[in-house]
Design goal:
This protein has 400 residues and is α/β, with parallel strands linked by helices. It is built from 13 helices and 14 strands. The chain folds into 2 domains: 243 residues, Type I PLP-dependent aspartate aminotransferase-like (Major domain) (Aspartate Aminotransferase, domain 2), CATH 3.40.640.10; 128 residues, Aspartate Aminotransferase, domain 1 (Alpha-Beta Complex). The longest helix is centred in the C-terminal third of the chain and has 22 residues. The chain is globular and about 60 Å long. The chain binds pyridoxal-5'-phosphate. Its cofactor is pyridoxal 5'-phosphate.
Amino acid sequence: MSTTTARIPRGRQFFANPGPTNIPDSILKAVSAVSIDFNDPAFLTVYDDVVAGLKRILKTQQDVFLYTGSGHAAWEAALVNLFSPGDTLLIIETGHFSESWGKMAKDFGLEVRTLSADWRRGADFAALRAMLAEDKTHTIKAVCAVQNETATGMELSIAETRAAMDAAAHPALLLVDTISSLGSLDFRMDEWGVDAAVGGSQKGLMLPTGMSFTGVSAKAMATHKLSKLPKSYLNWTNMLTRRHKSFIGTVPTSLFYGMRESIRLLEEEGLDAVFARHARLAEAVRRCVRHWSGNNGPSLFCESPDRFSNSVTAVLMPEGHDAEAVRRVALQAFNVSLGGGLNRLGGQVFRIGHLGDLNEPMILGTLATVEASLRVAGVPHAPGGVQAAIEYLAEAARPA
Ligand SMILES: *Cc1c(COP(=O)(O)O)cnc(C)c1O
């Protein structure tokens, strides 16, 4: 007989994945809008408002193209619209997602150089600068950076990436993946000189999966005109001939009603307050994990405190213990869904997503349940990690 009998779950599932994320009730209502002709003037107003709002979130006054497709479609759009066969890209290694973007570029016949980095410490900007300075013939057409490496729970500073490129006086385009950072970590497309900013719907923007987009600079649009990789559905030039200046086919109208609500929620709270909330909840998670690590327990995967991600924390298991066992207990016994380790981190880490529609009780509930799961799974840890999170959050909530 199994000791855990199957339970009928009641109450809400605590969803602590780093994407998709919790969808607020008001967004669920908004996406349930009935079908509407995407050229109906009533929808065009919504459409134009959403594109304008998305530019405020990206902090850009340049072009934005949207796609029916998840983040991978926007990765692909950025590559096929900007490059020609044989062009060279420099990918800053961060983890699974930088590797995947690089692999996609190779699939399209692009040359990929990698700025190698230790996944637990992050890339070295002096090395980036040196690599660019050495490229005297400007063979490197673009630097690709993942702002928030969702697989490792680490942030890559885009301001420092831009500074390294400027210091080397290198004219490469700067392509940035903001898929798990936009709407939870600060992002400034124009100020940081980002030429293509890739984003998706189901992470910080709290929407269902299915829409993605790229902010595109004027410099990138000029490069686009010369690009020779085959493209059709994702071709920006084709899109510009449409009323919507995006979407070759049917526009996903319900996601636009959802995104209008998402932007309203983010701006009602205020972007800076949104970022501060993410920072606060993330710090509570880290204090809890640090406490657990006391007794040879699970520890923070990220070893560079200045690179901690405020949207996801990867927790490294002690030797000989399987992260999947912890995730299984959390889900089956407590109805808490955690993120798993991706590819080569499979079984070694589990991930606590703390981005999107989230508050203190949800974080404390998740941490308490993860601690219970460690106990059930027989994983060593210093008990009482949640207390460290409680103390931090209580201090943060005290009136000034
Ligand atoms: C989720 C994610 C992707 C992939 O996006 P999909 O919407 O799953 O296609 C790419 N990059 C990062 C950093 C991500 O977090």
